[in-house]
Amino acid sequence: MIASGSRHGMAFVAESTYGVTPASPAFKALRHTGTTLALTKEAIQSGELRSDRQIADYRGGNRSVAGDISGELSFGTYDDFLEAALCGTWESDVLKAGVVRRSFTIERHFSDIGERHRYDGCAINTLALSVAPNAVVTATFGVIGSGYEIGTSALAGATYGDATTTSPFDSFTGTIQEGGQAIGVVTSLEMSLENGMEAMFVVGSNKTLQPSIGRSNLTGTLTVYFENKTMLEKFINDDDSSLEFSLVDLDGNTYVFTLPRIRYTGGQPDVSGEGPITLSMPFQALLDPVTGTNIEIERIAA
User: Domain containing 140: what range?
Assistant: First the structure.
């Protein structure tokens, strides 16, 4: 039998100690549209010179886990991953960027061939959100981890919770504000958060330690129909601005994303034909002295 993507499942459980799967783990179902999560190995190749020109030896070197998990953003589905990506903690349904490190054991279940692949020490290194017309909102989580094993049965004492059933957010509902003013000419919004994690290796082990972490680097691009010079002048003059966008699902559940202080890093009304001209405005999110963060997410249940 050949494994089919239609029978592929994913689940995760939070780790108390980095790289250690909890005993009798209570896995949560992980909704997804695709993944590239896999073990990667560096190569060690012999440099021996031989008269027959052959390579004398080759073996795998340092190991790490890496890849993306993509999905359709829906209320409550990725709250644990959002928390890990921001290194923050949900408090009174508000999440801000912080310094708390979190890791997970993630399991992939190939149910049609009876295999379970488990990856431990998985930290969320990147988060990419895409809001585009006539589409559901997508989220992609970039993962970096440590260990990998293949099994044919669930771990002893493991339980598996049901997946959330909330509907995906789309671009038809919700609102967006730029600089505190409602704006109705946005054609797309792309946002990317990078934590700058890097694998750390030591002599005596081919597995990574808990990865190092860099700064919370949040960038994005706001694309709008070109109406006037207002936004271009913000780029030219290095003026601070802000972005706030809300996503509302079919039941009225809402996420409100606030970037309280951004600065545009470009802006050019390119023309490629006779149709409407769009203005692409890349931006960098900065620390806001009032809120103490570069991003804030509020969740509001219906």
Answer: 5-43+59-300
